[in-house]
Amino acid sequence: MSQTLLQVKDLKVAYGGIHAVKGINLEIKQGELVALIGANGAGKTTTLKTLIGMVKPSDGEIMFNGKSTAKLHAYDYVRHGLVLVPEGRGIFSRLTVEENLQMGAYVRDDKAEVAADLERVYGLFPRLKERYKQLAGTLSGGEQQMVAIGRAMMSRPKLLLLDEPSMGLAPIIVQKIFEIIRMIAAEGVTMLLVEQNAKLALQTANRGYVMESGHVTLADSAANLLANEAIQKAYLGE
Amino acid sequence: MDIFLQQIINGLVVGSIYALIALGYTMVYGIMQLINFAHGEIVMIGAMVTITCINLLIGAGINLPGPLLLLAGLLMAIPVSMLLGFAIERIAYRPLRRAPRLAPLITAIGVSIVLQQAAMLIWGRNYRPFPAILPTEVHDFFGAAITDLQVAIVVLALLLMGGLFFLIERTKLGRAMRATSQNPEVAGLMGVNINTIISMTFMIGSALGAMAGVMVAANYDQAHAYMGSLIGLKAFTAAVLGGIGNLAGAVVGGILLGLIESMCAGYLSSSYKDVFAFVVLIGVLVFRPSGLLGERVADRA
After folding, report:
1. Which of A51, A122, B143, B295 gives 20 to 30 Å between its CA and that of A236?
2. CB-CB neighbors (< 8 A) of B187 in chain A
3. How far is the alpha carbon of A92 from chain B, nearest alpha carbon, in Å?
4. CB contact, 8 Å: B189 with chain A?
5. CATH of range A32-57+70-236; options 3.40.50.300, 2.60.40.1120, 3.40.50.10800, 3.30.460.20
6. Cβ neighbours of B186 in A, within 8 Å
7. Structure pTM?
8. Which residue pairs, CB below 8 angstroms and at least 24 apart, start in B126-131?
């Protein structure tokens, strides 16, 4: 039985007077790829931002690796292995591709291993190796997403949070990004994937949560969710 | 005497001082989009502390060669300025980090006035002569006059700029500073402590400012509690001319402004040389508000 990596209990988040998350429970075990799906404004991104400390919860508890994250600073999370690939990619556009990747290893001191990880990321994304000296802002959207994911990999995440990795990308590029997500999962990295493209997310994940206006309304295996008629109608467009 | 060459030399000397100060403005602006109007006062305090320190050493009967006395003064002034820069950010700007942009700007002007008045209480309202400890020998350079001090100012300024560029472009700290200036929130996700980066930025800028202040005082043989306003405003002009937020722009803008000023002083009227600097500022703001090097790579986010 693999151990629980992330446990969220009765999490509530309110900001600007709006209750974006109204008491949700999540659990992610070591090695799982979990999808969090739902409509626009359901509270998915807020949930991720709270998990990574960019937003403070108004109530509830987040346990990562058996410890509460309540007292961590925003810049501490990456040291504990909790890493977010933000919505809209958040690359440093006036840094080169390689400098972006090196920023992912900012908290690491083991130079030799960082260099090895850089080669590993270039192995995953040969495209980035070709363009390592180019300013990241001049890359295409798909390449920028590769930079964002590669940068996150450079910090050796224990739990990788992905916020809408398919956003704004052409379908063929989306397929490619999801291929990479599967490869990373195969390496044993635990992931929580927030996606509008529910079908693709559920086809990739082991398990899924469905969020609706601040609540988790369903939690099941990805296969069961894909087969669920209500889900098909609401999110899969069938 | 060759006026043209002479004015080029004078312009380069003053210009490299402007450039050092402009770097302080542009670094802070790059990281937090704030014009730190108190930066000119840091420059002034750097000069004042150095002069006081040298006079104390001379008064105590310590007989060192001039350059060593100057070095001792600088070793005192640089940490004082860095500490001051750190404290200003901590006390005056950090509480306003999330406030509308006008609030820290007004605070900056307030801090500048406070520092000016404090300097007047400490050092009085009179001009302080720069101690005569440096060689004043004038060399002939293709018909123009040049002193060791002028050569030293330009060489030291170039070395400092080179050092800064190395720090920003080639070190981990510099990379984190650039990342923070582009996207502080994501830099935080990478484990960068933004507060540390901002403090470092203020301290590095202040150290450069203090050295520039000593250069100004040595070059004009005097310092004054009010000297920070004019030199600060000119260096700010230089930063805007080059494109604020851009380090290379600050260097180009500083040297260009120094040259423009000294050419105007040489060929038009030296009593109006300050006016020319601000004509340049107005001209840039009207015709090219982003500055000479102020263009940015398109963000395709």
Report:
1. A51
2. 92, 103
3. 6
4. yes
5. 3.40.50.300
6. 86, 90-92
7. 0.92
8. B126/B224, B127/B222, B127/B223, B127/B224, B128/B48, B128/B51, B128/B217, B128/B222, B128/B223, B128/B224, B129/B221, B129/B222, B130/B51, B130/B217, B130/B218, B130/B220, B130/B221, B130/B222, B130/B223, B131/B51, B131/B54, B131/B55, B131/B58, B131/B69
